[in-house]
Design brief:
The chain is α/β, with parallel strands linked by helices. The chain has 15 helices and 12 strands.
Length: about 450
C-alpha cells in the first residue's frame, strides 16, 4: 500500500510494500499466539491499512515530506502549483477531498487551508467573532485533529469498499478481478493531504507561539502560517488599523515555530510567513538598533518623524537618531507609532526577504485588493534577492474577483492606448461584458507572467 509522498522514501511511513505482505506479517505474528485463533490475518492486515497513520505526528511527517516534494516540483516546473481549499469542519474537508479524488483520480497538489477567521467566525465557544484572535487558541489544534479524523475515515470507507469487492471476486472465482483489486489496494491514494494552518500572530509572545505550534503539529499540521501583526491588536488582513511588530520580534516567533517542528521530529516542517505591512500604518514599538543600516534601523526608517530641536522638544518625547539628526516619531494617544504613507510595499518587500533569510519557507503578502500587478511587482523585487522565493496567494472570498480583474484589464487596455469607449468602468459586472476581452486574465494583459504558489482561503480558486 503506497502511502509514500511523491518521490520520497520513508520506510517508517510506507510500511509493508503490499497487501499480501501485510497479511504475511500478520500471519507470522498470529502463529506465535496459540490463543488468538479467532483473529484472522487478513482482517488484521485490512485494519492496519485502514489506520496507516497512527498519530498526528505520523501525518505531519508524511505531509511535510509531501509538501517539500511539491515545492521542489514547482521550482522545476511552475505549472505544478498547489491549491489549498478552506475548511472549517472535518466533514467539509472530507467531502472536498472525496470529490477532488473522484473527479481527478488523485489528490496530488491539493491541500487544505485552516483559516483563523473561519475559526473565529464558526468554531469559537464565545460565538461568532471577528478575525481578531479572540477565539480560544485550543480551537485551532482541535480543528486540525478533526480534519484528519475525517480524512482518515475517508480512507477507511474507500478501502472497505475495495475489500468487499475483493471478497465478492473471490467468492465468484474471478481471479483476474481479484488480482486487479489487490493492485488497487497496493496503489491506493490517501485522502490525507497537507494542512496549511493559520496560527495568526502566535497568540502571545514567542513562548506562547512555541507552545501553540507544538499542539498544532501534534494534531497533524505540517505547515504553519504566522503573521507579523501585534498579537493583542490583530485585525483581519483586509481591514485598516493593523499594527505590526519589529522584525526581531517576528523572527523570534519564526524560530519558535521551527523549534517546535524540530523538537517533535518533523524536520521538513514548513513555515509560511505573512506580512500585513501593506495595510498596516502603525507599529507597536520602535525597533532596537545598534548601528546604522541594521535591521532595526531599516524598520525605523519607515517611521513618520519630524526633526527635534531644543525649541520644539516636548515632555515625554521619544527621540531616535536618524542620519545624525534627532528625530521624533509620530506617536498616537494609543502609544502606537505611525509609518509614513506610501511605504507599505517597501516594508512588505523587506519583511519577505528578512523572513526567508531567517527560516521561512513560503511567503504570504496580505493585500487589500486582488491586484495581480501589485503583488507581482513586490514578488519580483523579492526575487531579485532570493530567486526561488515562493508566494502563497490568498484567493479570498472577501473580494469580488471578477470585478477586480475586469478593472485591471480595463485599466491596462486604457494605459496601452486601446479603445475602451464601449466599456463603462463603473458597470463592468454587467453580463453584456462576459464575451468581451475583459474576461482576459489581468496578468496576460498588464504584466509578464509571474508564477506563484497559491494557497486559497476559499474552495473556489482563480
Amino acid at each position: 500500500m503506497n502511502y509514500q509522498p511523491r518521490g520520497i522514501s520513508d520506510q517508517a511511513l510506507q510500511g509493508p510494500a503490499s497487501y499480501l505482505s501485510e497479511i504475511g506479517a500478520a500471519e507470522a505474528l498470529l502463529k506465535t499466539q496459540a490463543t488468538w485463533d479467532g483473529v484472522t490475518a487478513e482482517a488484521v492486515a485490512r485494519m492496519r491499512l485502514q489506520n496507516r497513520f497512527k498519530t498526528g505526528l505520523d501525518i505531519a511527517r508524511y505531509t511535510a515530506a509531501l509538501m517539500r516534494s511539491d515545492m521542489a516540483a514547482y521550482d522545476a516546473d511552475t505549472t505544478k502549483y498547489t491549491q489549498s481549499l478552506g475548511c472549517w469542519h472535518g466533514f467539509i474537508a472530507q467531502q472536498k477531498l472525496i470529490s477532488v479524488k473522484k473527479h481527478f483520480g488523485t489528490t496530488d497538489r491539493c491541500y487544505l487551508y485552516l483559516s483563523g477567521w473561519m475559526i473565529a467566525a464558526l468554531r469559537s465557544k464565545f460565538g461568532p467573532l471577528p478575525d481578531q484572535s479572540m477565539h480560544e487558541k485550543t480551537s485551532v489544534p482541535a480543528l486540525i485533529e478533526e480534519l484528519y479524523t475525517f480524512l482518515r475515515q475517508a480512507d477507511s470507507r474507500e478501502l472497505n469498499d475495495i475489500f468487499r469487492s475483493l471478497d465478492a471476486a473471490r467468492k465468484a472465482g474471478d481471479k483476474a478481478k481479484e488480482k486487479a483489486l489487490i493492485e488497487k489496494i497496493d496503489t491506493f491514494k490517501t485522502h490525507v493531504v497537507p494542512v496549511v494552518a493559520d496560527i495568526d500572530a502566535g497568540f502571545g509572545n514567542a513562548e506562547a507561539t512555541y507552545l501553540l505550534a507544538k499542539k498544532m503539529i501534534e494534531a497533524g499540521a505540517c505547515a504553519l502560517q504566522i503573521e507579523n501583526q501585534v498579537s493583542d491588536e490583530k485585525q483581519c488582513g483586509h481591514q485598516d488599523g493593523k499594527v505590526t511588530v519589529p522584525h526581531e520580534v517576528f523572527l523570534a516567533k519564526i524560530r519558535a515555530c521551527r523549534h517546535a517542528f524540530l523538537e517533535l521530529g518533523v524536520e521538513d516542517g514548513i513555515i509560511v510567513t505573512r506580512t500585513d505591512s501593506l495595510g498596516a500604518g502603525l507599529t507597536q514599538q520602535i525597533a532596537v538598533s545598534h548601528k546604522p543600516g541594521d535591521l532595526g534601523d531599516q524598520y525605523n526608517s519607515f517611521l513618520d518623524c519630524e526633526e527635534v530641536t531644543a525649541a520644539n522638544a516636548r515632555n515625554g518625547d521619544v527621540i531616535i537618531n536618524q542620519n545624525g539628526k534627532m528625530m521624533r516619531p509620530k506617536r498616537l494617544a494609543s502609544n502606537l507609532y505611525q509609518f509614513r504613507e506610501g511605504t507599505g510595499q517597501d516594508r512588505c518587500v523587506l519583511d519577505c526577504i528578512t523572513s526567508l533569510q531567517n527560516g521561512a519557507d513560503l511567503l504570504w503578502i496580505e493585500t487589500e485588493k486582488p491586484n495581480i500587478e501589485q503583488i507581482a511587482k513586490m514578488v519580483d523585487r523579492v526575487r531579485e534577492v532570493i530567486p526561488n522565493a515562493k508566494l502563497c496567494y490568498n484567493n479570498s472570498p472577501s473580494f469580488n474577483w471578477t470585478l477586480n480583474f475586469r478593472w485591471q484589464v480595463y485599466d491596462a487596455m486604457k494605459e496601452a492606448g486601446k479603445d475602451v469607449s464601449k466599456y463603462n468602468r463603473a458597470e463592468l459586472m454587467k453580463a453584456e461584458y462576459d464575451a468581451t476581452p475583459l474576461r482576459s486574465k489581468p496578468m496576460s494583459v498588464s504584466v509578464p507572467s509571474r508564477p506563484i504558489h497559491p494557497s486559497a482561503r476559499a474552495s473556489s480558486t482563480t
